[in-house]
From TrEMBL:
Molecular function as annotated in GO: beta-1,4-mannosylglycoprotein 4-beta-N-acetylglucosaminyltransferase activity
GO biological process: N-acetylglucosamine metabolic process
Keywords annotated in UniProt: Membrane, Transmembrane, Transmembrane helix
Transmembrane segments: 36-54
Designated name of the protein: Glycosyltransferase family 17 protein
Organism: Neocallimastix californiae
InterPro entries registered for this protein in UniProt: Glyco_trans_17
Any Pfam family: Glyco_transf_17
Keyword Membrane: yes
Amino acid sequence: MEDEIGIDVKYQSLNDPYTFRKPKLKYRIKRSSKKCIWIMFILIIICLLFSFLIPKEIKEDIVNDINDGKNEYVMTKGKPRFDKYGVDLNANILDGMYNIGFDDDPNKKLEDWSLYTPPCPYLSPVNHPEYVINPQCEVSSIQIVNYNNDNGKGLPYSLHLDSITNQMKKWEEWVMKDGINPNYRNRSVEELLDNNQYHPFDYGYNSSQEDNTNNDNYYEYVINSRMDETPDPRKRRLFSFIMFNTEFDLLDLYFTEFYDVIDYFVIYESNSTFSGNPKPLYFTRALLETDRYDKFKDKIIPLPCETIVDEDNGRGKAFPKEHLARRLVIEKGLRSVHARHGDIFIHGDLDEMPKVHVLSRLKKCGGWEHLQAGIGGGPKSFIHENTNSYFLKNKDMNVTVNSYGEYMIDYEKEKSLGFLIWFYEYSFNIIENKNIGTVAHPNLAIFDARRSLGQFIENGGNGISKRSYHDPLSDPDFDIYQGYTYTDNTNDRRTGKGFLGESIRFDTSKIGDLKTNNKTVLWNAGWHLSSFLPTTKQFYNKISSYSHHDSYGEKSKNQIIKDIKSRIKKKVYIFGREKKYFDNKPSYPDSITEGYRYNFNATYWDEMISLNGSDTNFKKYKNMLDHEIPYQVWLNPICYSFMIDRRFGLKKKLWWQVIPKKNWKTIRFEDLNQSIIKKIFPKNFPKKLKSQLFRKTNNKNKKKKVTIH
């Protein structure tokens, strides 16, 4: 840290970690006294000593002021790290950020942190079946919640999908017919999903022929392309923008489960909690200082941000901080990945996990985009004489804004599409509602370069006059992501102008209003892993850090931990009133090698829905979809025992509480004796699957002839 500090450097205040100030007055007086004593000597040899003695004293003063006996701050800073396409994955950490050390100790390593949990020894990306990652779009479908069928508890709608190539050809044919633009905003969900008609959507791409450029060269070109160019939608990318606190076990699961389908993970964290307490940059330091995520590093972009908001919105000071964090992770996330027109991004909390087979169909297939983006369209080239941007304050381009400062231009039908997911509490054994998902997050949206550049939508009748200025994209000061920014992020009162990223999430936050507001929500689309934490220490840390922390009042740590154990035993929600949840029995695949067997064939789903799900085999299939769990969990039941059997981490020891720390990285579970296996393996895991699992792991290790790390 000393090497980074010079004479005029301002530094972080401990009382307000987001205010930077100069050294305290008493230290400046102390420094001046030393200068007076040596004044004659300094005048004689000033050229020799000035650059050596003075900076050293000032450095000591600054360090003394930062280390006030309570916390000792450390500087976390990264070096440029470019991926094969030219994206600097460390762009957000080049300037560095001060944060407290682990357990308030600046010299402590992550592995020695009191709440540290080791990664699974088998931590690596899940190899999902090829037909899942690359679905046959021409015969596939996507399921949408049917709130007219038993308030969403019944069978869903099923929308036919198609290849993006075919969808572009259909658009070209529709344009030739000179049809009337559909008003998607005023159509019911049922009308939007009518499989007997084409739902016009313009990808904004000028050719139905696929770009056959080598992928490495193609994406290298894309990230450096002009924002007013539309990349090939068949090669669109999928990004995940999530927020992280300390839940390493969930983050491990997230990376492994989605590595195959997501192109970049942007991970937001702050050097203070939403409840206002300073905290280490756990994830950023794990990425820089350990090998925990080396197998995923080529897709990971850390985004540490300071929380500068300090206000009460009526629900406490935590929620304003959370709202601004969501706004920032979307805006800065889009910048970090060099988003271009047609790319897809999802935003949610770390414990809100969509199903991979849903994500892959949305990424690779066409025919659903109108549900979120309306009729679509692409950006106009600024080289064209009639293209303009309302960000350039052209007098002929007055754009109205609403009371929140959002531009009143309909770029989309919906802000986002929500994933209706099952709400599990503590483990997959406890569920809020056995009949329907009760959370409509995370949220998915398509990046629109027209919004980003401040362009009107085509056929908008805005009467733009001939442009009389230079190409704005040739101006280095023109922000190509301005349309996804907000001008005032110092408060949660929405006093600025622009794009409110948090509204993408809020669009589906009120689960009871989804039917009334005619929202399109993806059916049976994921899991909410609420409070899936290994030990009571992690539970306490969560409660003291999150936006809901006030619900436990002024209770002592011991009393809070006692309350947590009581809530888990009674199967009630961790926050607020003691809402009773239900028992749940997860479903497991029959085969370790094949995994779950999916069938999203459009014709099959049409037939099953017409029969109201009465087919015996379909009932079994739907039961599997309702109760399936992430691949990584059932592939590694010892590592994630507390997610399968909640007694682990409470009454029963976790694997890393049994295995000595020195063996955590090299342990092979199949080599352990049966007495140890019995202690750390969930009893409710299928015996048939257990034997397959050990046999597969043992064969894999023999073939490689190495210990798994």
